[in-house]
Amino acid sequence: MADTLNVVPASVIRNLADKLYEKRKNAALELEGIVKQLAAAGDHEKISAVINLLAEEFTYSPQANHRKGGLIGLAAATVGLSTEAAQHLEQIVPPVLRSFFDQDSRVRYYACEALYNIAKVVRGEFIFFFNQIFDALCKLSADSDANVQNAAHLLDRLVKDIVTESDQFSIEEFIPLLRERMNVLNPYVRQFLVGWITVLDSVPDIDMLGFLPDFLDGLFNMLSDSSHEIRQQADAALSEFLQEIKNSPSVDYGRMAEILVQRACALDEFTRLTAVTWINEFVKLGGDQLVPYYADILGAILPCISDKEEKIRAVARETNEELRAIRADPAEGFDVGAILSIAKRELSSEWEATRIEALHWISALLERHRIEVLSVLDDIFDTLLKGLSDPVDEVVLLVLEVHACIAKDTQHFRQLVVFLVHNFRVDKNLLEKRGALIIRRLCVLLDAERVYRELSTILEGEADLDFASTMVQALNLILLTSSELSGLRDLLKQSLANAAGKDLFVSLYASWCHSPMAIISLCLLAQTYQHASSVIQSLVEEDINVKFLVQLDKLIRLLETPIFAYLRLQLLEPGRYVCLLKALYGLQMLLPQQSAAFKILQTRLKTVPPYSLSSEQIKRTSLGIPYSQILHHMPSGSQIMEDGDISRDMGSAPNGINFTARLQQFEQMQQQHRMHAKSQLQSQFRNNSTSTKEMQKPEEPPQSVSDFRRPSSRSSSRRGPGQLQL
Predict the structure, then answer these.
(1) How many whole angstroms separate alpha carbon 36 and alpha carbon 28?
(2) What's the rounded mean pLDDT across residues 129-145?
(3) pTM higher than 0.85, yes or no?
(4) CA distances to 207, 617, 619, 623 from 629, in Å
(5) How many other β-carbons are positioned within 10 Å of the β-carbon of residue 693?
(6) How far apart are CA 382 and CA 402, in angstroms?
(7) Would you give the end-to-end CA distance of the chain in angstroms?
(8) Residue 609 near residue 574 (C-beta atoms within 8 A)
(9) d(CA 538, CA 516)
(10) pLDDT digit string (tens) for 628-639?
C-alpha cells in the first residue's frame, strides 16, 4: 500500500472514493496519466500494484462510492495501458465482473460502463473472458433497473461486434453455456439469447448449424412465449436454420427429430405447426438417417392429422403420405414392431382421421413386411377386433380389410372367424348393429362361400343355443338379402343339380338347424320344396312362438322381393311344383289370419293359375275348392309331381342328399332347443318363487300333505276328457 502511495497521490485515492461523480472522474483521469507514464517506462510491476489497489481497496469495499471509484479507476488504467492492457486483463476484468452482481444498481451501472471502456481498448483480447461476460450480461439483461438494462445492451452490442470480427472465439466452449440458459423463462433473457444465436449464425466461420440440436428445443419453447416480439424472433431464427438445413449436405437429423417429435405434441398451436413443418422437411431430406426414428415421427404425426387447426392437419397429412411412401427395410434399422405399436395405440384415438390412417399403416406393413407383422400379430389382434365396434363405418371397413389381408393364410382365417363369432357372442350390440356390415364385407374380401362354410362349422357345435339361433338368423337374412352374396344364392339354387351346390347346402344345413325359419328359407332358396314342406309339418307347438312368427313375417315379405322372383314364376306351373304350393300353404296355416303376412301370402296364392292342373283338379277348382284341399287329396304318386319336384325332393335323391337324415338332424337340434327353453323357464320360475317366499311372511302354519283331500281313483276315472281335476 505504501509503495502504491508513492506512485498514486493520496489526493487521487481520496477523490476516487468521493460521493461526487465529477471528483471521481477527475481522479480517474489523473490515474490514467499515471498508468500511461508507468507503461511508457515499462514498469508493469507498479502497474500491477495500482490495479491490485483498485481491486482490493475499492471494488471489494463495503462502501458503494469506493466501489464506483474502483470501477472507474480500472477502466482508466486500461485506457492508460492501451496496447499493453492485455497482459493485465486477468487482474482487471474479474473485479468488474464481480460488480455486475452488486446490490447497488448504480454500482452495476458503473460496472457495465467500465467493462465497455475496457472492451473498446482490448478488443479481441477480450474473448478470453467471453463466457463469464456472456453469463453476466445474460443476467443483467433482466435487471430491475432500466438504466442498468440500457448500459448492458450497449455493452452487449460491443461484445457482439468484437466476437464477429474475432478469430479466437470458441463456439465449442460457448454452446454448453448457451444450452444451459435456453430454458430460462424471463422474456428479456430470451430476447438476449435469440439475439446472440442470430448474430453467431450470421458469422461465416462459426458453424451454429452443427450445434443446433443443443439449443433447438429452447427455440421451440420460445414460440409459445406470451410476448409477440419474442415469438417472432424465435420463428425468424428457426426459419433461417431450416433454410440452412435444406442447403446443407450434412445435418444431424436424428437428434433434432427427437426434439421435433416432442414439440409436435405441444399445447401451443404455433409450436405444433412449426414442429410438424420441420418434420415434413426432415422426412423429405433425411433419408436413411431417419429410419430409426420413423416410429417416433409417426407417433407425432398421426395425432396431428386430426388437429383442430387446418394448417397443421394439411402438413401432417402430407408428411404421413411422404413417410408411408418410403420403402425402408428391417435390415436398415426399420422397426416394424415399433411402427405397429404406434398404429395400435392410435387405433384407440378419439379422432376418426387418426384411426383411419393407423389402419392404412397396418395395411401397408402387411403388404410390404407380412412375415414380420404376422410374427407380432398377437399384440395387435385384439385391438383390431375391437375396431369392429367403431362407431364410424369407414373405420370398420378398413379394419375388415386388414383382417382379410391377415386371413389369407388358412390358419389366420380360422382364427379370425373364431374370434369374430366370439365377439358377436359377448357383444350382442355388435351383432345387431354391425353384424351385417361385417359379414357382407368379409364375404367380398375373403370369398362368400368360404366365410359361410367356416361360420357354419363353428356354429354347428355352439354351446350357447340362444346365441347360435340368433347368429344363424342373422346369417340367413344376410344370405337372402345382400347383393354381395348373389353368387352364393345362385350356387344354392343348384343344390339338386350339381355337387358344388349340394356340398354347400349340406354344409350350411347343420348349423341352420338352430333356426326353423332359417332352414325353411334355405330349402326355398335351394328349391328343395318337398323337404321344406316336411320341415314345416315337423314343427310342434313349442316351436311356433313370437320369435318364430316374426321371422316368418320377414320371410313372407322377402318372397315378394326380386330375390325370390324365380320361386314366384314357378307358381305359374302349379302342376309341376306341387310341393312348393304345399310348403307355401303350410306357412300360411302357421300365420294368424289377421296378420299382414297372412294376407300377403294369401293374395299371392290366389294368383296361381289353374291351367296346368288336370281336368279333375280344374273341376274341383271351379267348384270353389281351394288349392290347399286339392293338394290334400292328391295321391303321393300323382302325375302332377313331374320332374320338377320328384327328381328334386325324394328321400334319396340322385345328387346324394339324404333328406330323411337331414330331417332327423333338424328334429334333434330343435329338441335340444326345446329342452334348453324348458330348463330356462324352470330356472326362472325357481328364482321368482324364491324371491316371493323371501318377501312374504307366513301367516298360518303350513298344512301337511295329508290334510288335502284327494279324489279317489274311481271318481277320477269318471271324469270326462274335457274335465279338469280341481
Answers:
(1) 12
(2) 92
(3) no
(4) 104, 10, 13, 12
(5) 10
(6) 13
(7) 136
(8) yes
(9) 10
(10) 454 444 443 333
